[in-house]
Amino acid sequence: MRTIVITGGTDGMGAALARHFLTTGDRVVVIGRSRAKFDGLLSALGDPSAADRAEFVAADLSLLADSRGVVAHLSARHEQIDALVLAASFIRSRRHATVEGHEASWALFFLSKYILVTGLAEQLRAAGRPVVVNTSVPGARADAIDFDDPELTQGFTFGKSNAQQRRANELLGILATRENPDLSYVTWGPARLVRSGLAGDVGAGMKFAAAILAPLLGQQPADAVRPLIDLIDDPAPGRAAYRGPKPVPLVESPRDEQDVIRLADLARADESGT
């Protein structure tokens, strides 16, 4: 029986993946903020055996303490993790500082992922064919990260924030696969809009677009994640990037090695509070 860990597994695409893998007989650990949504997901399945294979871990992954707590919990309970799906999302169009003092989007969309990927490396290494699926749309510019001000204390825009999170997660793949050559690390984004609720603190324009365009043009979460299921079921070692089922080129730069070191240094400093 495989162990599948899914952050953001109570809504949208994360919930669709949780439902699928519980239906196919896997053990599924859902990381999220709402126990009620998790219980509703299990109830809707109508399969008593699913509850025996499902686990919920409550966490706000914009808080580094919660992310570290998830790593400690999973490390104590699971010797092996076959798949780690990083799908937690909360979109912010404005800069917001957490109670820990970090910019919330940087903390949720990169720092938490760094903590989980590096902190669970031993459990992933124990799996025969481990895979990390990072739902961070690939293709950001190689120079997207402001290494002098990664939390964008000056000049924050949604576009800058989004681009540097995406680039950071691609660089995280270099670090992760270097440490574990058997690991499949996939950055992935849906091919088109998905009909799921827009969780976040966004402006009227983005809310309007989500409310109008997603129902008209979007695909159901269960349809959107079908390519992800294939990538989890048949992982290939190394890094890859996809939009929907279509592979896309990895963004590469002569500065990649230097940037990976700088990024890891930043992440470790944030973890230690220095």
UniProtKB/TrEMBL annotation:
Lineage, highest ranks first: Bacteria, Bacillati, Actinomycetota, Actinomycetes, Micromonosporales
Keywords: Oxidoreductase
Protein name stated in the entry: Short chain dehydrogenase
One Gene Ontology MF term: oxidoreductase activity
A matching Pfam family: adh_short
Keyword set includes Transferase: no
